[in-house]
Amino acid sequence: MACAGCRSEGKTVGCNNNGDCKAGGCNKLNVFDWLSNMKQSNGEVFDIMEVRFKNGRKDFYRNDQNLEVIIGDPVVVDVPSGHHIGYVSLQGELVRLQMKKKNVDQKDVRSIYRSASSKDLEKYDRIRSKEESTMYRSREILQNLKLQMKLTDVEFQADNGKATFYYSAEERVDFRELIVQLAAEFHVRVEMRQINSRLEASRIGGIGSCGRELCCSIWLTNFKTVPTSAARYQNLSLNPSKLSGQCGRLKCCLNYELDTYKEVLSNIPKVETPLQTEKGAAFLQKTDIFKKIMWFGYKDDHNWHAIPVDRVENIIELNKAGEKPATLFEDELFENTQENSKINADLEAMDRKFNKGKKKKKNKNRNKKRRQHNKNPEQKK
Fold it and tell me: Do 25 and 57 have their domain in common?
């Protein structure tokens, strides 16, 4: 069954995307059914289905009438104040696991009335066409009432008996007067539902800094807290503009590789105090976790020295025993660094000589032009 973005004048025209819906209507927050057609131990199929509504909102309904529906079919379901239309998004044994995961009691599950007909879908499309104008008008009412809240989305019920207004607010808002005005303006029963900033971003959708759609908008359903320590573990710059997502909170993707970083960091020594050497105290500047290299620098030296993790552990043990190594490097490594420093010094001398000759040539050309100008003062430069 096509989504609303694939319909034109009540007819299903199809988007030819073969399941890769660019509008997000066909596959938003979809779950791969790896237990499809699996029956219970008594040979019966689990009679509860998962139904998806606008912007990925999902709920569970019981197929009491044994309707022959498949994933993607529109159905008319029972809601507390009438009926609504949704699309079957999951069925079979995987629904039982989803209900167990979300702690949903089977006794509280409502029923599916019937499959939605073309007339039902046409009527629902006419009702949904009012949502955008309703949201704009509602925002004007909010401004007149001077309420500190942000209206995010409006969802009309298929029977046009109720409208749900989704909003976000930092503080508690008294919207009793707002409900009265909205009910009088649109002649429907009004329900105000507050959502957090992450859920707001998932409903609106968008493109992240990675160039892909927001994870919360296409597959992520559980929003875990993202601590600032997740960025510190990964040696990321604590720049709010780069670490924050569209919701204004820390990006959820900071948690994806956090466990790997913690596992690797368990093999990296903790340098709580500077390393003591005969040359002086060396301070930790940076750590390359996966290469297992740590950079140290002296107080009056602006150069950083790359030290292997094994050598750092060796120096820490020597400092605990009251000993100081000659340098941060081992003897062989130190000789190599001395040779490298001589080579670098020779290269720097060659660069200075080259730049000096280049500067003389430039001054020579400048003086030549100046003499020519003095001979012909009327000549333009």
Answer: yes
Is there a domain that residue 343 lies in?
A: no
> Residues 48, 107: one domain?
yes
Q: HEC string of 49-105?
A: EEEECHHHCEEEEECCCCCCCCCCCEEEEEECCEEEEEEEEEECHHHHHHHHHCCCC
Residue 209 lies in a domain: yes
Q: Which residue do the tokens 């007149």 mark?
A: 144
pLDDT digit string (tens) for 328-375? 887 544 444 555 555 556 667 777 776 766 666 666 666 666 666 666
Domain contains 269: no
> Which pair of structure tokens corresponds to residue 64?
């009491």
**Unique residue bearing structure tokens 């009012």:** 130
How confident is the model over 119-134, as a mean pLDDT?
93
Asked if residue 112 and residue 20 are part of one domain, the reply reads yes
**Are 226 and 252 within 8 A, CB to CB?**
yes
The string of pLDDT tens digits covering residues 18-33 is 444 544 455 567 777 7
Distance CA 362, CA 355 (A): 10
For residues 190 and 139, membership in a common domain is answered with yes
Q: How many Å apart are CA 217 and CA 246, to the nearest integer?
A: 11
Q: Which has more confidence, 66 or 347?
A: 66
Domain that holds residue 224: 200-264
Boundary (domain end) residue, out of 264, 283, 310: 264
E strands within the chain?
7-8, 11-12, 48-52, 58-62, 74-79, 82-91, 110-115, 150-156, 162-168, 189-194, 275-277, 280-288, 293-298, 305-308
The pLDDT of residue 185: 92
Residue 298 lies in a domain: yes
Contacts of the segment 203-212: beta carbons below 8 A, 24+ positions apart: 203/55, 203/56, 203/152, 203/153, 203/166, 204/152, 204/153, 204/246, 205/24, 206/246, 208/245, 208/246, 208/251, 209/242, 210/253
Region of 29 please: left (phi>0), alpha (psi -120 to 50) or beta: left
Number of domains in the chain: 4
